[in-house]
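Quick one before lunch.
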Amino acid sequence: MSGLAVAGVSHRFGDLPALRAVDLVVEEGEVHALIGFNGAGKSTLMRAALDMLKPDAGTVEVLGVEVARAGPEVWGAVGHLIDTPFAYPELTVRENLWAAARLHGVDAGEAHGAADRVVAALELEPWAERRAGTLSLGNRQRVGLASALVHDPRLLVLDEPTNALDPSGVVLLRELLLAAARAGTAVLVSSHHLDEVARIADRVSVIHAGSMVGELDPRGSDLERAFFAMVHEADRAARR
Ligand SMILES: Nc1ncnc2c1ncn2[C@@H]1O[C@H](COP(=O)(O)OP(=O)(O)OP(=O)(O)O)[C@@H](O)[C@H]1O
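Model of the adenosine-5'-triphosphate complex:
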């Protein structure tokens, strides 16, 4: 069973085709990177994958279950960070992470331990007893990532997770994603940082103007050059 299977997904915003018959599979145990220019459709695809947006056409299966039929047992095994990280501003960082664990179905007896583990993993100890509403942008991002990870999800969907992170945060996240994949989690991550993608991804899919235009080898010699060649060829093909 795959962590995520998207088939033939299309979606328009008014007259703009944001997704055009997109297929994407994220296997358990792999880090699958989604790369593309601004406006290519990465966030829209992730939103469709998480049932935050109902596409005009196509199907989405999460952990082997069609999203329309997915219940709490499925969504409790999914972690995500899309858009601005959510946190209750009046709760402390540790309380927020406890709440995120409980909302994802972690038992009351285990939620404190789970929150403590992600506080340590994201190096949030200095801010753990601070109210989330007072945090810096980068630390809010760390809390968002900790919330996505606190319940050991089997599918992790992260939209540009290195946004606002400092270099030590980028390294921490890299290690956490690799460890999650080693433990069997299916990881889908969008990014503009091709050097970072090359370090962590098992597979790289390129989305351009709403279409999936191909895959790149993350271990290839010049990912950036290969990426530009692929999107320019897609543009040429579209003009023909
Ligand atoms: N709610 C919306 N209403 C109208 N158009 C939208 C909406 N959301 C996205 N779009 C449009 O759909 C297209 C794809 O947007 P999307 O946010 O998926 O791109 P992206 O690849 O995530 O871009 P970025 O790298 O800039 O985050 C863009 O042209 C965008 O303007």
